[in-house]
Amino acid sequence: MAALTDLTLAQLTAAMARKEASALEVADAHLKKLDEHRALNAFITETPDKAREMAKASDARRAKGEAGLLEGVPLAIKDLFCTEGVQTTAASQILKGFIPQYESTVTSNLWKAGATMVGKTNLDEFAMGSSNMTSHFGGVENPWKRKGDNRKLVPGGSSGGSAAAVAAYMVPGSTGTDTGGSIRQPASFCGIVGMKPTYGRCSRWGVVAFASSLDQPGPFARTVEDTALMLQAMSGHDPKDSTSAPLAVPDFAAAARNPDIKGLRVGIPKEYRVEGTAPEITALWDKGMEMLKAAGATAVEVSLPHTKYALPAYYIVAPAECSSNLARYDGVRYGLRVPGKDLTDMYEGTRGAGFGKETRRRIMIGTYVLSAGYYDAYYRKAQQIRQLIARDFKQAFETCDVLLTPTAPTAAFAAGDKMDDPVTMYLNDMFTIPASMAGLPGISVPAGMDKDGLPLGLQILGRAFDEETVLKAGAALEKAAGFQGRAAGY
Are 137 and 219 in contact (CB under 8 A)? Predict the structure, then answer.
């Protein structure tokens, strides 16, 4: 049998079911990987004792014949999910040392399915960023390197720690959150699979909020099937979340295991051929469509005319919601408190010291667009554009079943690049933001490599709550692409 850390999530559960390994042995093998690759800074908080304790409980359940869907599988949890008794920081100084007394619904669902937790992963502060360089705890390093170039690369953001942990084989799966591409873009940069479910598919309860109408938890893994298994465990209606959809959870894993796409209509949005996209990514996009056609799908050109407005509209809506959500961090009830001569002084000192530069920038933008005299000119207009973007997708899906697009306009870039130009950094999410604005499901699948030996992802988008078709198409693309890339040394 291959090394336990080399096995996929599905292979691990099968090996444990055959009694070829115990959950404790699996946990120890992955914890050893954490020790070996700590320099990547993928984790903010490691929980080895908790992992072993949960693994022992998992072995006991399996011995009784009570194995769950993810029984004994070690996972990494983005440090945006509240975990009872374990520090949750959102990668911010303002929450450093905060220990929740409750468990998020998504992580609770994962523990019910038998999974174990090895630690909390690093991210852009409050999930604001596309590089994982805005964390108070330092940036995360991508396990991949360019050929002949030893410079550190970013893993993408905001869920960069979760993506790097999977790409470095420290865990077979991890959780992320996707507001404007924060699962799909790092998945592309790290050569793994990442899925943003439909808004409302996974509960947001217990997830530190960035932009409430956009945030959506989702999974990372190394295969489409593993991603489907995680999504199946994470999903479900939650009465504690008013935006949680009261829908039954389909058998996502079955859809991923059946990549028969004969007759599937794949839309190619013409507006996604934009200036600034690397030529290799455009070529891979064309090749990806040819692969799907060879598997029985048909190509359909579609138009999403309001795509060009998605990025500016997003950077009005998301900061506006962030401004409201982050108003709760004031030094009064929990987290950092900087003493002041009066209440206002304490607020100003706490928020000035507690929030990083990018978070402060977005709070200021959001406060501005919500202020008197500007609300109608900016925020209301952006919400109207959002409706037009959603309408574009609805009309496109009248002639196709899924859309195929690039995930990101470039491969992973060097740490420090683009940091001085926030607009250039924001452009990293140009292909992922439109689906986020419309609340649609999307998956990034590694489909090729660039000339420097870095992974490139392609994105499949689907109708609301039709993750099954997205997973089926993703599995077909994965099978056709046959991506076997692995970061050297991992």
Answer: no
Catalytic residue among 33, 50, 78, 196: 78
Domains of the chain: residue spans and CATH: 4-258+411-481 (3.90.1300.10), 310-367 (no CATH)
Q: Which residues are within 8 A (CB) of 225 and not within 5 positions of it... i.e. 6 or more apart?
A: 8, 10, 253, 256, 257, 475
| Cα 244 to Cα 27, 215, 468, distances in angstroms | 32, 12, 18
Q: Do residues 173 and 37 make contact, with C-beta atoms less than 8 angstroms apart?
A: no
pLDDT band at 264 (very low <50, low <70, confident <90, very high): very high
Amino acid present at 52: R
Question: Which of the following is catalytic: 130, 135, 174, 182?
Answer: 182
Cβ-contact 252, 263 below 8 angstroms:
no
Q: Indicate if 323 belongs to the active site.
A: no
Q: Which two tokens stand for residue 288?
A: 């990806």
Active site residue 158: yes
> Token pair for residue 353?
């010291």
> Residue 422: its pLDDT value, please?
67
- Per-residue 3-state assignment (H helix, E strand, C coil) for 403-429: EEEECCCCCCCECCCCCCCHHHHHHHH
d(CA 274, CA 172): 34
Host H or E run for residue 448: strand 442-449
Between CA 73 and CA 85 the distance in angstroms is 20
Cis amide linkage into residue 158, ω under 30° from 0: yes
**Residue 423: is its pLDDT beyond 80?**
no
- Higher-confidence position of 423 and 378: 378
| pLDDT 10s digits, 106-128 | 999 999 999 999 999 999 999 99
Please confirm, yes or no, whether 162 is among the known catalytic residues: no
227 within 8 A of 195, measured Cβ to Cβ? yes
Active-site residue, from 158, 159, 162, 188: 158
